[in-house]
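TA notes, week 10

Several of you asked for a full example with nothing omitted. So below is the full record: structure tokens for the whole chain, then the designed sequence directly under it. When grading your own attempts, check the secondary structure regions first.
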């Protein structure tokens, strides 16, 4: 019987300015950012949202920008 490889899940702390911080469990930083914003609603709507994703295990932090109109997610410059 063949074993199915599974992705290693990591714990990330994700936050956006003015919004609650959440702990999410995902395989990548990008997946953690997407998981955070899946249920995210801003009022009033904003064209862009800046997210900070921190790997809880090693403390490494990354910044992402979400275009709320298109759904595109990219690293902060």
């Amino acid at each position: 019987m063949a074993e199915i490889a599974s992705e290693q899940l990591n714990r990330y702390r994700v936050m956006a300015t003015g919004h609650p911080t959440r702990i999410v469990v995902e395989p990548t930083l990008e997946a953690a950012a997407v998981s955070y914003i899946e249920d995210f609603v801003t009022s009033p709507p904003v064209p862009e949202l800046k997210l900070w994703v921190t790997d809880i295990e090693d403390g490494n932090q990354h910044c992402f920008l979400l275009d709320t109109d298109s759904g595109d997610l990219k690293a902060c410059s």
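The two ends are 47 Å apart (CA to CA). Use that as a sanity check on your answer.
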